[in-house]
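Q: Protein A?
A:
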Amino acid sequence: MKQAELFIRALTISCLPWLVVSSQQYSRLATFSSSSAKPWRPSSQSVGREDITIRQQMYSKDYSSYFLDQEDWITDTKARSYSFHRRRTRPNQATITSRLTLINVATYLAQVIRPSLTAWGVKISNKILSGQELHRVITPMFLHGGLFHLFTNSQSLGNAGPSIEQIFGPGRFLATYLVSGIAGNLFSAYMSPNPSLGASGAVLGVISAYLVFLNRHEWLLGREGADMSTSIGATLLINVGMGFVMPMIDNYGHLGGAMGGAAMSYYFGPRLYYSDMMDGTRLLVDRPIVRLPRHIESIPEVVIKRISRMTRQIHVGRFTMDLPNKPWRRTRQTPRRWAPNRSIKPRNPP
């Protein structure tokens, strides 16, 4: 029992308490402003000497490689028109980020009620490498060692997740989160024999995927994207550095998750281009290196729509049940096809 208590206390600090990037900084790039999305268009605001130098470097750059012909991207199966996945329904509708947070909270409550769940799902290196219990590759990203551990990971995911989900879309965001968590657990199992659990590897993977997106689209986002990339890079370095200072932190899980998220963003993440249309307008086109099948990318959206439809039907059913009876309304009865007492045998001729 003493070893289990010490293990739980150690896990409460093996989280992500140094991810201090606020939600405003992450959501700053959620909407591409006209000045940052069009670096070739000069701004009417007064700028300083540094801004002028940066813009001179941007104007001197050749942007022809970031433009696609209309025929090229229409015939390419991997290219699609790009748009942010904003919520077009009720403002209080849950997103993939909020659902992942709810899953983590529900799993922690299950751990409190049934402590054996932690021992069943925690990462144990020898069992993973021997192939005996492969479920331990996935389950540790949903388990936590304490309230502080759960709070810090949920806060980090809540700050970074919504904006990244809008940029990547629900399908690619969920795939990046899961692959990052699995990659972190596999790398930790290979490099360290110590048990571990927590969603910090998956969260760091999502943030590193965002960093790859910012570096790839520096031509599109301008100085704002460069500043955000520097801030996120410093945050990742701080987390990795603190992992080396404190031995209780599973730093290999953080590194594996960050590498998995970066790889997902590089190969499957958005890779944006501009395309000149026939009517003179410009369209933003997403042409990733590897495109996930459409039915896989649309799984989260389809699930969310079905859950929302079921919820609406439940609310409508409750509302109609509370309505008073209206006797003046006649219920429609389906007419009978034949009378039950009448014989269908043909009559004999006289």
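Q: Protein B?
A:
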Amino acid sequence: MTHVDHSFIPKYKPHLVMDSKKNKKNELIMVLNETMREGSSSSPPWQVLDLVADHLDPEALATASCVCKSWSVSMSSDHLWHPICSATYPSLSNLRRAAAAAVPYRKLYSLGRAAEKRRLQKPPKPRLSMADFAFAVDIQNSRGSVATVLKPGAQLKLDKNGVFRFDIDVEGGDHLAAFDELDSLRITWNVVLQGFDGVFTVMDCKGKGSFILGLEGWFSKELPAAGCCSSGAASGLVADLRLGLRESAAGKVVAEKMSVGLLSIVSWRYVCVDDALRYLQHFLLPCNY
């Protein structure tokens, strides 16, 4: 067993041993500050550093390891970081044993802490705004165009719950082209960047079934993953478009209004506006890579 010269401790701080762990930390940090103070030529022996380190939390240990090379060696030892890493990130400690890898526990703790911060980090604000694009919805049947709706994003009324879902009136009234069978319809929903600098086709599909007045004709399409390295994978989002139907004065079925939005496959709820904008900007704005 190594003999520790305890008589050295009072020379730095005679009251390091306290009942409160918080007070211990404060006093020990004062020791570190005194040692780092300009003009201080002495440094405590490694035995004292070892005693001090047992009372420090991860942040204080990391700070102390930056004092000098000898402090870095003392404050980075596995016997100090093993219990900390095992208590905070037990899976990483188990991984070291399973992989038989000589990875320092301090590094494992650092990796776990960095991963935790990334997971909890809020996503950046979208670079795209509602004023930067317009919705263009085209409805066709076997005989030709039924309706083409162009709605600037700045004119869309935001949902009170802050989700990416919008109601759009189909102008034209009884002068709109009529249709009978839902399977004769083709719905195309494009998001057009301001100045026609970019276009993303959110939906291009055909309807099936028959119309029932007073109800909605529903169209949906699963969206591709965002980014240039998606390899055709799914995004977990679904484009949703619904047509509000009514009977015209001539007794024909016409689309009076529509609603569009983006749904999450996980919750089957509409995503928030910022999440939808972050998704759309991958297809409408230049890639940063």
